[in-house]
Amino acid sequence: MVFCGFDYGFYESEVNYYSVVFNEVIYGRYLELRQFGRQLNSNLLIPDLGTLKGIESVRIRLVDMGADLEGAEGEEQFAYIAVYRPYIVEYRQ
Fold first, then answer.
1. What is the DSSP string of the chain?
2. Distance (Å, rounded) from C-alpha 56 to C-alpha 59?
3. What is the pLDDT of residues 27-61, one digit of tens each?
């Protein structure tokens, strides 16, 4: 497996999931979170734990200030999500 990067959110099932990167960094309404878009890697994921913790801190601060963000009600358990893909070996003749 090859590490592609991190997401932040929750994944309970194929129909119940939430990606902070997709919904708040790439397509979000809050500039403080959208600014992290410049730090995403070529897979559009968070490349390192430092950036991930920065997003988490900004998000917590925004929620504390009353921002309308997913999970602000405390129902979902957000977590760091490491994303991997299969390692593909190409054979050439």
1. -EEEEEEEEEEEETTEEEEHIIIIIIS-S-HHHHGGGGG--TTSSB-SHHHHHHHHHHHHHHHHTT---TTTTS-S--EEEEEEE---PPP--
2. 5
3. 999 999 999 999 999 999 999 999 999 999 999 99
CB of 32 closer than 8 Å to CB of 62: yes
Q: Which of 59, 7, 60 is nearest to 29 (CA)?
A: 59
CB 36 within 8 A of CB 51: yes
* Cα distance between residue 53 and residue 33, in whole Å: 12
Locate the domains of the chain by residue range: 2-85
Report the alpha-carbon distance of residue 2 to residue 35 in Å, rounded. Answer: 27
CA 83 to chain centre: 10
Model confidence at 88, pLDDT cuts 50, 70, 90, reads confident
